[in-house]
Amino acid sequence: MLKQTEGSVAVAEAVALCRPEVVCAYPITPQTHIVEGVGALVKDGSLKNCEFINVESEFAALSVAIGASATGARSYTATASQGLLFMAEAVYNAAGLGLPIVMTIGNRAIGAPINIWNDHTDSMSMKDSGWIQLFAETNQEAVDLHIQAFRLAEELSCPVMVCMDGFILTHAYERIDVPTQDEVDAFLPPFEPVQVLDPDQPYSIGAMVGPEAYTEVRYLAHEKQLQALRVIPEIADVFKDVFGRETGGLIHPYHTDGADTVVVALGSVNGTIKDVIDNMRSNGTAIGSISICSFRPFPLEALAAALGGAKRVVVIEKSLAPGLGGIVASNVRMALGITATPVHTVIAGLGGRPITMATLTEVFEVAADGRLPDVQFLDLNHAAVEHEIVRARATRRSGPTAENVLRQLNPCRPAAKV
Amino acid sequence: MFQIRIHGRGGQGVVSAAEMLSIAAFREDRHAQAFPSFGSERMGAPVISFCRIDNHEIRLREPVQEPDALIIQDVTLLHSVDVFSGLKDDGYILINSARSFAALGINDFVSTFPRHHVCPVDATELALKHVKRPVPNAALLGGFAAISGQLKLASVEAAIREKFPGPIGEANVAAAREAYEIAAGA
């Protein structure tokens, strides 16, 4: 049914429509409304046969989901930011054990300095854990990807993270078509696990594996991700047949035909990028964009094909590999192989810094002129950075960086005693 | 596209106000997007929320920087936040205040806007009268419908009832109606 609702509430309804049997909940901003929403649906009886378990930490949330999934129960949890880091060991275990858990990430920055706002640092920290990572561009896509995620996870016996931008999507009210139970039931069959912990037929899951077989087990994890490159578009096709919407898949190209400059990004910023592309196209600039939906597995071939005609690629990314630059850009470079196409990294939107049409237009125009540096920080306050570098060099006991930058930008804050 | 920015403080229903505006627009078959900009998540801290209304899908995700309309739920923000930043020259201003623009010291600025685009409404008083709590958000939405002409009062009422079913919703609807009459007659 078409309704005007909050992204988190719609995702909670979509998760409930997937009939999870165990939902583990531990609150952290900006993911909290999602598990609260699922909890409300369990309490009012709309979601039946579901254990809603309040746990004591994120580590417990995913550990309980692992245990539940290993007994053959469809399992779900959600987290963000430090919560994802706190469950890191369990994240790797869920993938290594091949358990088809679905987890929402309400994408948020990671401290220090503490910051509750959106960027992709949290998901990026787990990009190589063996989970499939799907990024939603809109709340409609977030809803749809959750329904696809359970089918994908269970078909491959591989956990799936659905990543949606914190606040920008989780807290946004917009028009969303939340499917009916019949539609979801027609699309998502009951969970048929490939391994089940059963006291009547005991075996172990998670045995120690020595050097003689560890490489083979790891290879099979890689091979599973390669299979996902085939299965993700197939599931998106079936989804389109049932629900009539194009959603999911590996990548979403936008006006890439004949584009000299192609912008690549993950998540909700693609909406703003598309509006900029429309403006620049109407002014005669040959520019297009690609939204990467499946970041893991990384769609090397699909991207290489879509970027084949580009003279340059600009990656807008909400994460930073300090000491390197862009994480997504590094992956895109691999897709382009040995071609000479330049790939520029624009680090943007860190810790909730707004990404505006005005600054994107500016940076794309510079890129179209071939003047964009290799790594650029969108809207960086160069004066503030320079001031702190000079200050810290001049004084050995220069104090904490974050507090010093804040004091510089807000001179009325009381000075720390140094 | 019509863009609204709402300024208030944590606890005044700033975020709910933008959400209700988006629901009202949806009920008129329009596309709408509402979202918040939190500072510190606590009572009394400045909070901003946004609502965009358009006739087609809204893809833009940046904060509203050049609003067509401003709703200011708390006049104490006039001294600490640049609430008028980016407001369009022919924009709308609705302020929750018992005082006139002159008494608020902003008459020179406000008088540059079309006369029927600007209005103070004592929404806190209306909320105390109808809802028995100083939550001015729903009343201001009634005032907004009156001065902007963007939404029908009936859609705003339906949005309030959807967000707050039962007696609380009805009380807020009464506050919104009275604010509509005041703003329409101003």
Outline the structure in words:
The complex is a heterodimer of chains A (418) and B (186). With 418 residues, chain A is of the alpha/beta class. Chain A has 15 helices and 15 strands. In chain A, helix 3 (58-70) packs parallel to helix 5 (88-96) and helix 11 (300-306) packs across helix 12. In chain A, 48% of the residues are buried. By secondary structure, chain B is an alpha/beta fold. Chain B has one domain (2-185): Pyruvate-ferredoxin Oxidoreductase, domain 3. Chain B has helices at residues 14-27, 101-104, 107-110, 123-130, 137-148, 153-163, 167-185, and strands spanning 2-9, 31-37, 46-54, 69-72, 92-96, 118-121. In chain B, strand 2 (31-37) and strand 3 (46-54) form a beta hairpin. In chain B, helix 1 (14-27) crosses helix 6 (153-163), helix 4 runs antiparallel to helix 7 and helix 5 (137-148) runs parallel beside helix 7. The model of chain B has no long low-confidence stretch (mean pLDDT 96). Chain A binds chain B through residues 3-4, 6, 29, 116, 138, 167-168, 171-175, 268-269, 271-272, 274-275, 354-357, and chain B through 15, 18-19, 22-23, 25-27, 31-36, 38, 41, 57-63, 65.
